[in-house]
Amino acid sequence: MLSEKQLKQLQKASYKIIGKSKHSAVKLCLWCKKSIKSGGENVCYKQKFYGINSHRCLQMTPCLTLCNLRCNYCWRDHSYFNQRLENIDPPEEIIEESIKAQRKLLTGLGGVEHSEKFLKEAMNPNQVAISLDGEPTMYPFISELIDGYKKRGFTTFLVTNGTFPEVLKKITLPYQLYVSLSSNSEEMYKKLQNPLLKNCWRKLNETLELFPSLKTRKVIRLTLIKDINMNHPEKYAELIKKASPDFIEAKAWMCIGGSSLRLKYENMPSHDEVKEFSKKISDLLDYKISDESKPSRVVLLKNNH
Ligand code: SF4
Ligand code: SF4
Questions:
Q1: N- to C-terminal Cα distance for the chain?
Q2: Contact indicator for 271, 297 with CB cutoff of 8 Å
Q3: Which of 115, 127, 164, 205 is the Cys-Cys partner for 39 at CB 3.0 to 4.6 Å?
């Protein structure tokens, strides 16, 4: 349960906490705001890569306070993370409140220069990114949550750290499933991602093995940190080969939020460095570089199968 002080800190950071038990939250994505302000001129790389609309995207989490890792590159504040929820809000309540919260947050944009058309459209979000904070597959009703958004006509993106393969095996799969892979060995994983349980690396590997059987669009996200995890591309290639995702997103770690206290500014790779590392992975696998976004320092690799 969040303390009053933590709640205030999160509200100050523009989070809208939702649900009676306060384990869920919505935050307007920077790109959603940029798109509304610019009338679609400035959009996120996922709009460019996958065709979603940044201005109609709802960024939320049902697990604001839950995660079983403590990744050094995580931009969240780990002090409010637990491993268990005391009370659990039902998915329908979370969905309804998330949409209301998004609308409320959007009204704040009425006072700045913006596109009226885009703001009006944004009031009816049609894309949800279940990724804001924490590990979403720890929410016991994640399947019903995805179902509920789907029933309302949303495309659903779920980002997981991959340590709960047993959940991924049985849930309604999202439209696009992301698994984060930011270490190429157990040793690196322990140092960089600080798992709270011994079996997390094994579980992540189980998820990678499970990946080919999951019938949805799948992405492996590499968060690249200079001098920390940008080495041994062949080890990443071995792990990715098992999963055979449709896409690999190789993205630079950005020096923001809580991570800026755990890593150094110099650990942030340039776009060219991300591209160079992506090429090495591409050369080792049957994937080709199909797109990139310089402002976000991200390169997209597409499976040639
Ligand atoms: S897909 Fe991600 S980056 Fe793009 S608008 Fe949604 S939350 Fe933001
Ligand atoms: S798994 Fe995600 S939310 Fe959890 S510590 Fe790592 S980056 Fe942060």
A1: 46
A2: yes
A3: 115
Of 81 and 279, the one with more pLDDT: 279
Nearest by Cα to 88 from 24, 32, 28, 132: 24
Pocket-testing residue among 60, 61, 67, 164, ligand 2, by greatest number of atoms within 8 A of Cβ: 67
Q: What length does the chain have?
A: 305
- Which residue has a Cα nearest atom 8 of ligand 1? 29
Strand partners, 180: 221
Question: What's the rounded Cα separation, in Å, for the pair 50 and 58?
Answer: 16
Please identify, by atom number, the ligand 2 atom nearest to the C-alpha of residue 159. Answer: 2
**Token representation of residue 145:** 């949550």
Q: Place 84 in a pLDDT band, splitting at 50, 70 and 90.
A: confident
User: 132-149 burial, b for 16+ CB within 10 Å, e for fewer?
Assistant: bbbbbbbbebbbbbbbbb
Q: Each residue of 159-199: pLDDT tens digit?
A: 999 999 999 999 999 999 999 999 999 999 999 999 999 99
- CATH 3.20.20.70 assigned to domain 4-303? The reply is yes
Cβ-contact 91, 54 below 8 angstroms: no
